[in-house]
Design a protein that fits this description.
The protein is α/β, with parallel strands linked by helices. The chain has two domains: 72 residues, Alpha-Beta Plaits (2-Layer Sandwich); 163 residues, Rossmann fold, CATH 3.40.50. The strands form three sheets. The protein has a six-stranded parallel beta sheet. Strand 2 and strand 3 form a beta hairpin. Helix 4 runs antiparallel to helix 5.
Length: 292
């Protein structure tokens, strides 16, 4: 049977018992299970509610995310995560471009690519070309001065790994950044693009083949096969159009604070919760979280 999961932002809890119990009663749900007071709760329902989408939209306006997930196989064995605007709060190439003095030009292309208006690989080549000749040391400056981590990332990775899962960062960004994010958050591995450097300057090119939408999907299938698991045992999270194929193929695909085109197509949409939402969706209670 399906499970209804309600999640709000842990930094600004909005899930009252009244909201949760009213919905449970309306849908003839099983007794409420509180995953975290004021933040997350769930209940089993006999079937998919006919007014699920309308209820989700109404709750979203109140600061509560609503998802319907299968009761079986909830706890996944592989986490695949996008990096930019997902595990961290920035688009690294936009931050590089800003320090290089070409921020507006690059940011405009990034926005269109993430909305699915441009083919990712070509858009990346176009943006990287604008960085040609600028100091390679700008990467270290971005890491030191501009990167912030999305709340809940450490708990997500540490809790899943403690439960026996593998966690892999799969990014259309650059290995210079994914290596640092992987070390900070405790991922098992990372895959990304390599920014070419000529001496102490950025060359304005990226190593081919570019890791984009198809490569993320391929990574999901390859890593699943290496682990001997079905794709249904994968949870994937991202925010941009180049994540859609990966999100669609995973057993649980989560659009986290995503671009509209992604939020509209993903299996699960999280607008208010942080990265711990992925744990609640898998049935973890707050008391089970590992902080890393």
């Amino acid at each position: 049977m399906p499970v209804v999961v309600m999640i709000s932002n842990p930094a600004a809890p909005r899930l009252t018992d009244e909201i949760a119990e009213d919905l449970r009663a309306r849908w003839d749900g099983a007794p409420l299970r509180r995953l975290a007071p004021g933040v997350a709760a769930e209940f089993v329902v006999p079937a998919r509610p006919a007014d699920l989408d309308q209820a989700a939209a109404a709750l979203r306006a109140e600061g509560v995310d609503l998802a319907l997930v299968p009761e079986g196989g909830r706890r996944k064995r592989l986490l695949l995560a996008d990096m930019d605007s997902t595990m961290i709060g920035q688009e690294c190439i936009d931050e590089l471009a800003d320090l290089a003095g070409v921020g507006p030009q690059v940011a405009a292309v990034t926005a269109r690519a993430m909305n699915g208006e441009l083919e990712f690989e070509g858009a990346l080549r176009e943006r990287v070309a604008l960085l040609a000749g600028h100091p390679a040391g700008l990467v270290d400056r971005v890491l030191a001065e501009r990167i912030t981590y999305t709340p809940g990332g450490r708990e997500l990775v540490a809790t899943m790994r403690a439960a026996g899962a593998r966690a892999v960062l799969v990014s259309g960004g650059f290995t210079a950044f994914t290596a640092a994010v992987t070390a900070h958050l405790g991922f098992d591995a990372h895959h990304a693009n390599r920014l070419d450097v000529d001496g102490e300057r950025m060359a304005g090119t990226v190593a081919e083949p570019i890791l984009g939408r198809q490569a993320k999907l391929d990574a999901l299938h390859r890593i699943s096969a290496e682990m001997g698991i079905e794709t249904g045992a994968v949870v994937a999270v991202g925010d941009g159009a180049n994540d859609l194929a990966m999100l669609g193929a995973a057993g649980l695909g989560v659009a986290l604070h995503a671009k509209p085109v992604v939020a509209a197509q993903a299996q699960v949409r999280i607008d208010h919760g942080d990265l711990t939402a992925l744990l609640y969706l898998q049935g973890f209670a707050r008391s089970e979280f590992v902080t890393g």
